[in-house]
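Journal club side-thread
Mid-discussion, someone asked how the predicted structure for our own chain would compare to the paper's figures. Pasting it here so we can look after the session.
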Amino acid sequence: MEARTVPEKVTVAYRGEKYEIGRGKRYYGIWVTGTPATDPIDRWPQTRDGWSQAWARFTAIETPGTIAKVESSRGGLKLPGGKRARSSAANAAPGRRNRLSRAAVAVGLIGLGILLGLIGLFPAYLEPQSLASQADQLWPHLMYLATWAASGTLIALGARRGRHETARLGALLGTGLSAVTFGLFFADLGQVISGGSSLLGTGLVLSLLGWLACAVGSILPLTARTRPTVPATTPSPAAPSGQPLTGPYLAGPSFGTPPRGQTGFTAPAGLTRPHLANAGPLALVLLAAIGAVAAFIPSWDSFTLSSSATGTAQTVTAGNAFSNPGAVIAGDVAVIIAVIAVAVLAGLWRPVRHGAILLAGATVPLIAQAISALIQVSEPATPAQFGISPAQAAAAGLSISSGVTPIFWVYCVFVISLVVSCAWMLTAPGYQAMPAVPQSPNPAPAPPSQRVDDEADDSDDDDAEDDAESTYTRLAPRPSSVSQRARRRLD
């Protein structure tokens, strides 16, 4: 698309279906496409904040997906970040190839890990039983593999379509899952460490290798150096010329941290410093995580042994995390640390929806543990679990009923709280929403603007610009205490 330079004083930078945005003499403005330079529907001072506000207004009134960058000639419009635009454009192709190769390796590792995990379901996991023969162990592992598969799919789709945010979301999902499952797999390995190598099965070895491949594949895309994505209010200088500014280009890099009080911005992608405004949501997410791991420690399983011969009954609980061997306890402690750490990182991550995906990945294993416990208590208990032979059980008329302890339901409440927190973070706005934008009227026909040399009569032009009334101000509701028209000082 070729640049349209309106007589010397206005240079158009971006054009959409109905409107175009550019720079006039010491101001940024928006025009209806094809109208004279003297008829901007709104204008802002030629400052960094002025450009941000102009772009926010432009994207609000223009049809999404129709905005395209206009090629500017030498000496034309110079927007903030112009030098970065040239350097970014020069390095765009190599950077894209690096991201694609990194994503391909990540997807390959995740695919390999899922394959190893699926194969590991069938050989002996902890001798002599396999995961496939134990429903309470099978379903959690299937949930892990399905989540990693979703992570790999998002990474692949994001890399293929150039949507870096999608790939990053997939990486965060897999990373959150990998962080928490590390402790769970280590607890299984701890049984081998404490009980002897005779317990080690091929299924456990394959599952551990599968976890390692999925963990590395999930973290790899996060190590790529990417530009911070900020405004949906600032165009990306590196957008390919003549192509619609969709996807990552509408959320291109900012000019750094926005000024205090500036609206219309999202925080840069990644961790941010905690602020007082974020203390409430962060405290709620952290409280839910601490409650979940605190309820993860006590016994969940409850068994009632009733003897018809003696008419007595005895209740036995099992499953306390700290009643296991030391190596198993170390794995459970790793789970506790990972859940709390991920909750803190998720609360500090920006954009907020990225933190929600990270927290969702860590929540999947917690949900899987609750499902495993319910499946386990639904299966009939045998006297052999308590060291009683079938003959002794028959002689005593022994019957066994199983259930869960009250602390299990407390655990479920906190896990549900984490799920609700994820949903809230996903729907939380990344930046302050703009007010409803009234439909801009088509300006009345005006006489053609006269050609004015840059050095001639600047003072008259400045006065004319100062007296120009903002269409946006004219359309906005009038304050009750103000009867005069609001005017914007341009200089």
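Post-session note: Confidence is low (pLDDT under 50) at residues 1-8, 73-92, 227-268, 431-491.
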